[in-house]
Structure formats: structure tokens, C-alpha cells
Amino acid sequence: MSLDPDDARWSTVAGSVLPYGRQTIDEGDVDAVSRVLRGDWLTTGPAVDQFEAGIAGCAGVSHPAVAVSSGTAALHTAYAALKIGHGDEVVTTPLTFLATATCAIWQGATVRFADVSEDTGNLDPDAVAATVTGRTKVVAGVDYGGHPIDAPALCKVAHDAGAMLLEDAAHSIGGSLNGTPVGALADVTTFSFFPTKNLTTAEGGAVASNDAELLTRARAFKGIGMVRDSRLMRSKDVGAWYYEMPELGLNYRLPDVLAALGANQLKRLQSFKARRQAIADRYHAGFGGLDVLRLPTHRQGADPMWHLFPLRIQDGRRRQLFEYLRENGVGAQVNYVPVYWQPYFADLGYRRGMCPVAESYYEQEISLPMFPSLADSDIDRVIDLIRIFVEG
Ligand SMILES: *Cc1c(COP(=O)(O)O)cnc(C)c1O
């Protein structure tokens, strides 16, 4: 395995460094990709169909998912399919990757941030209820770290306000809440298949929903807005070459080469999940009795897919712990800088202090190594390092 030293997932410390996340590729994955490369379709062929059916099965929805070229593309496609535009508001969490918010802005919407719950770091339904207005069209929650959002409560707040619930499930494919899979909990769900996520296509994403019309709009959007189904066309019986563009779109297609990797990875999703749970259990056992540490919560009814292991250190020494881990070869990460702290938002007038729970979550948080091929001996080394740091 060769590591690109410029890759942001790796510490810049020389020598062997434990990353916070990494892909799990086996020879079956290599064979699946090779078969596509030797075949007739490099993009938008049978592997995409197979992957879209596989994602739908995993997400518990009745229509094929719409595969796209990244999790960011999935969010943009979902907002477009929800018909978000100028004058509309999207309420979302600041404790997320930038794209959850920025893709709504690309569609012309205004973003409003609501605070998170202190235990899960997920959007707090009460905070959302206090933030929605008559212009709110979408509430966008994120399954932070892999723990599903409180979708029933958020659906109610969103629907009561005349809005839809979008679930950014970049962290949580394979998880569930009260027996309902992530993918069937919200009006529309987006996934990311970036290498550090729970399942990879190198770059990739998908949009899942039970709403057939929304999916039709999503499918057109990721294909430059083109439709070839005559039922969707204004002019009839022009000829078999004919296509129309009722709405704008972009090229967000996922190639067959990458879909084949994803379809093969999907077969191992449950084993990835079991290993991630075992790693979380080992961290929990190893950090027992250390009151200064706050470990990720697991709410009743939730079956998380632990994409991250977000540790919180409550004595104000997050930066010292982070640097100490990096000096000792542990490539920890911080997820996330509150989105509205970014200069882009600051310049628009968004002010620090708006979501105090998310801000204090950020100020205490460190994501520890969490990926299926992480060895027990490495987990124990991370635990020992942190115990020594905390107990002094
Ligand atoms: C990774 C991620 C995205 C974006 O996915 P990409 O595939 O990197 O474009 C969006 N939202 C969240 C919460 C993510 O973690």
C-alpha cells in the first residue's frame, strides 16, 4: 500500500502514520473494475444499473437510487430535484462538511443554521422548529459520525412548516433507526462514496427516495437536464434521435468503472459495519473511567454505522491532544469546523456564537482512527496514548 503524502487524510509526520479513515479494497474489487475496463461500457452502463439497484436495496426504497459522481453532486442533485431556488430557505446543521450547505446556495437558496443536540451532534428538532420560516423549503440533517438523525421528529417539524426533509447520509449507509434503513427515513437521502466513507467508488455518491417524480428530476439533473422519455417531452413523435432539456442540469454521471467497484463493495457492507461496531466497542471499553472524555452516544432505537469515532475532550486541551497524537503517528482529524465560521459565510454576515452547542462540540472534538482494517493492536495503542495524555 503506497500512501500519497499530500493526501489530507494522512498526517504530514514522516514515517508510518495511522490514518483516521481509509478504504478497504480486496482482489474481488480489482477484478470487478477490470471486467468493466475490458468490456463495452465505461460509463452509464449495466454496472451503474446494478449499483443503483443495490443502493436502493440497502436504503430500503422502492425505486433505483440515482448514482452520481460525488456526495457533493448528490446534494446538489437532491436540492435541484426538490426545486430549491431563489427566495427559498434551507435549514441545516453547522456540524457538517461544507457541501451540505453550499449546494443549496448553488441552487440560489439562503441557508439558515440550526443548532445540534449535545449527545449525537445531530440537528436538534427543537432548534429547527425555532429556525424555520414561511420560506423554508428544506430541512437538511446530517447523520453525524454515522448516527442517524431523529428523522421522525425532524420530518414532523419540516412537514409542519411546509418543507421537506433531506438526510445527508454521507456517514451512515447501512445504518437504521427503529428498524427503518437510512435511505427510507427522510423525503430524500444522499450518500457519499469517498474513500474514507463506509463504502467507496473512489469518488461517487447517490440520491435515494421513495418519490418517483423527484428521482426523475434527479436523473435528468445529473445528465445535463436531458430527457429521452417521450412522456416527458413537449414535442411528440419527432424521431428516435430526439431529446429535450426541460430544465438545466450538469454532468454528474458516475462511470461504470466506479459503479462496479461500489457494487462489489456493497456485498461487504455488513461486514464493514460489524468491524466498525467492534472498533467502537473496543474504544468504549478502553476509555472507561476517564471522565474528562466524552464518547459518542448511541440513542435507543438507533443502529449506527460508525463512520467516525468522535471523541470529545472536555478540559480545553483538544489542540494539545491532537498534536500529541500526530507526533505519535496517529493521524487524527477534526470533524467539523462549524460551516458558518468559514470566511465565505462570515463575509455574508453569519456570526460566531449562533449555534453554541455545535461550536463547543467542535472545540472538544477529535476523530480517532476508524476503518474496517484497523488492527486491535493499533486501537490499543491509540487508547494507551490517550490514557497517558489524560492521566498525565
Ligand atoms: C463527505 C461528505 C460530503 C461530500 O461528499 P463528497 O463525496 O466528498 O463530495 C457531504 N456531506 C458530508 C456530511 C460528508 O461527510
UniProtKB/TrEMBL annotation:
Keywords: Aminotransferase, Pyridoxal phosphate, Transferase
Gene Ontology MF terms in the entry: pyridoxal phosphate binding; transaminase activity
Gene Ontology biological-process annotations: polysaccharide biosynthetic process
Modified residues (N6-(pyridoxal phosphate)lysine): 197
Active site: 197 (proton acceptor)
Keyword set includes Transferase: yes
First and last residue of the signal peptide: none
Entry cofactors: pyridoxal 5'-phosphate
UniProt similarity note: Belongs to the DegT/DnrJ/EryC1 family.
PANTHER family: DTDP-4-AMINO-4,6-DIDEOXYGALACTOSE TRANSAMINASE, TRANSAMINASE
Name the record gives this protein: Aminotransferase class V-fold PLP-dependent enzyme
Organism: Leekyejoonella antrihumi
